[in-house]
């Protein structure tokens, strides 16, 4: 079975994005993201993929609204053995959440503004956005 993991950095109130980018400057977390995802297949939403660009050492799979199952099946077929990292943003996390078996979350000590929020990790969890 393909190993699907979620990776995110989340502010104190669930913030994840601001004006199409990360709300903070955290080089250490970017290094962590790289170390975790190297060798894997990284699924990113259209907006995130546009902002991030190429990721050396990883297969970047942009999500353009297609069926998540079809994307996971395609990665399993074309890149067997690679861990699949669901790397955001919010829309992408939400669409792939039911396939995720492991979540790697960095809690960032950030209390500033955001316009994109982490969706709930499991059914019944309080939505971060509602908790603002
Ligand atoms: N903190 C973290 O760990 C982390 C990780 C990743 C991203 N982020 C942040 O999350 C934010 C982005 O998240 P998001 O939920 O807005 O988007 P996203 O999940 O990155 O991308 C999905 C969105 O892209 C748009 N899209 C899809 N196909 C498109 C196409 N062909 N042409 C134009 N637009 C298309 C759609 O927008 P519409 O629904 O409007 O059509 C869709 O909802 C950014 O600020 C990013 O920096 C944070």
UniProtKB/TrEMBL annotation:
Claim: Repeat is one of the keywords in the record: no
UniProt cross-references to InterPro entries, sorted A to Z: DHFR, DHFR-like_dom_sf, DHFR_dom
Gene3D superfamilies the UniProt entry points to: Dihydrofolate Reductase, subunit A
Keywords: NADP, One-carbon metabolism, Oxidoreductase
Class of enzymatic activity (EC top level): oxidoreductase
Record-annotated DHFR domain positions: 3-132
Pathways per UniProt: Cofactor biosynthesis; tetrahydrofolate biosynthesis; 5,6,7,8-tetrahydrofolate from 7,8-dihydrofolate: step 1/1
Presence of the UniProt keyword Oxidoreductase in the record: yes
EC number(s) per entry: 1.5.1.3
Signal peptide region: none
Role noted for this protein: Key enzyme in folate metabolism. Catalyzes an essential reaction for de novo glycine and purine synthesis, and for DNA precursor synthesis.
The protein, known as: dihydrofolate reductase
UniProt organism field: Chelatococcus sambhunathii
């Amino acid at each position: 079975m393909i190993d699907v993991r979620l990776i995110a950095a989340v502010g104190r109130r669930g913030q994840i994005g601001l004006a199409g980018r990360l709300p903070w400057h955290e080089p250490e977390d970017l290094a962590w993201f790289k170390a975790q995802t190297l060798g894997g297949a990284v699924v990113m939403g259209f907006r995130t993929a546009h902002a991030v660009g190429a990721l050396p050492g990883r297969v970047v799979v942009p999500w353009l609204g297609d069926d998540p199952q079809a994307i996971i099946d395609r990665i399993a077929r074309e890149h067997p053995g690679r861990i699949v990292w669901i790397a955001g943003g919010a829309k992408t996390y939400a669409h792939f959440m039911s396939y995720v078996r492991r979540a790697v979350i960095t809690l960032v000590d950030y209390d500033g503004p955001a316009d994109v929020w982490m969706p709930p990790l499991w059914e019944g969890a309080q939505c971060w956005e509602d908790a603002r």
